[in-house]
Amino acid sequence: MVTLGNDWDEILAEEFRKEYYKILRGFLKHEYAAETVYPSMYDIFNAFKATPYKDVKVVIIGQDPYHQPSQAHGMCFSVNKGVRLPPSLRNIYREISADLGIRMGENGYLMPWAKQGVLLLNTILTVRRGQPMSHAGYGWETFTDAVLRKLSARTEPIIFMLWGAPAGKKAALIDARKHVILRAAHPSPLSAHNGFFGCKHFSQANELLVKWGKEPINWQIL
Description:
- Helix content is 35%, strand content 11%.
- Helix 7 links the parallel strand 5 and strand 6 (180-184).
- The N and C termini lie far apart (36 Å).
- The chain has eight helices and six strands; from the N terminus they run H-H-E-H-E-H-H-E-E-H-E-H-E-H.
- It is globular and about 45 Å long.
- It is α/β, with parallel strands linked by helices.
């Protein structure tokens, strides 16, 4: 049984009992035994452990974990301490710096965001080494769609940052009457110049949080 150590335990208890999740768990048990899979099985749910449901202010949606050694640790776009910044994260830092006029460092460990209420949610939570999207279609999408529906059901407003086409499709799961959806191109080097750079999502998010009487996010990572 998965234990997250906060209010997600009660909110997701029913999901963990569903048949699709039992099948997914069996698949993962085999994958971790037979293949190199990222992140560590102990890190799969780190995004939920770091950011309780009641504390979520912002949701950033990624696709699947980094697929090279030492990078993934269960939070989208974030890498373990001491790991070189991946290109997409470097572009995210570039946009933050331009948007907020702050200096960003070379540390890609985004736990400080998570502790402030930024849920860093991949739509697929595991991957084989060197094989992006290798765990697509096995049940993670059903699970994370359920997570988004539960977040959408919350009374307090949340800011959802949807970057790129796959993340953009998740807008259908979010009640835009209650919550704010910010869309942009993906920060990948292939698409960042098509609308991610200049999107100003980080200043927009903080302006909204202040308007709602909440503490803004300190986006600086050094």
